[in-house]
């Protein structure tokens, strides 16, 4: 049921890109008075002209405070920080500030499965979606991994569910948004340049369950002490998952041989193709959310026997001259690289580096025990060299970028070794996106003779 009539009438959409454009379309289609403000967009852009034809008021090229005149609510692009002058002024004037995902609650009353966490969101979101599809459930994918949530919500049918990957940026800007199943994977210090401090970041993540009711589900990592404490405040039914605890009365867990949901063995561990403890956590979360939403054991088994990972997230590139090559370009923080390193027992040649956000990398030192060589690049190269030396890594080389690093790193491997791109850093010092960085790496290793 569409309840857009209950949304405020005069709206400022701040920042276009994919989510802002989608939000503006939905609001205009719902008869709202919409002002669009974007500094980078051009009046010649096809999407901008479309919004103008629909009736949007366009203010492009700058951010004058006058755009807030008469505005009842601001829908901002998730990437825009809260210290942006327009946002800061809106807050001072007590004008609500939300993100595009907030509109989902006004567009559909169909079940929504929302997934968040510092790491593993994309893998878990993909697993849940595929498990439901192979169980003959009607499901649509949305959010960071797919189409903008508002576009999907508009097309939802009565027998469909939405699976949506959610960032802390999106979740900080919600008021009414309520997933019927929320999945909280983990919490690790990240995005502090955006949120300001760890407490604010954790609060944003935990917004995923703030509106849940007693008939909703909250799937959470019982091995994460921060989450375990925070979820005591939920109204939803709690479904924990754990790789260390027996949860046969409570949720998803593993024994020595199987993945289990409550007291039911779902699939043998030896039949699962994804590697790594962190992926086992993602699998448990996905199994719990999928089972709660109608997935069959057969559907779950099919996915886990065939799914080898999402692109750029510990993606197996292939065997090249008897070396195992993995692209983990999506590892944009230390925790992700820790988990990648812990996934392998063999000799690893690690390629790492990227944007310097001011942090050190000492937390990586205990996880470098199986690393025989490192190739470092980007703004953080010297910091990563330092911790490599402290960890006792014998060979450390510098490279200009990932294409250069791939070739240098491959030359340091022996047959049976792992060549692993897992940067522990964002890509923006040298590349537009982590996807671009990963694609360049994959192209480079395929040119090695």
Automatic annotation (TrEMBL):
Q: In which pathway does it act?
A: Cell wall biogenesis; peptidoglycan biosynthesis
Reactions accelerated catalytically: UDP-N-acetyl-alpha-D-muramoyl-L-alanine + D-glutamate + ATP = UDP-N-acetyl-alpha-D-muramoyl-L-alanyl-D-glutamate + ADP + phosphate + H(+)
| Highest taxon of the lineage | Bacteria
**Main localization category:** cytoplasm
Outline the extent of the Mur ligase central domain: 115-290
Q: What class of enzyme is it?
A: ligase
Keyword field contains Ligase: yes
> What GO biological process term is on the record, naming one?
regulation of cell shape
| Compartment annotation | Cytoplasm
Specify the protein name: UDP-N-acetylmuramoylalanine--D-glutamate ligase
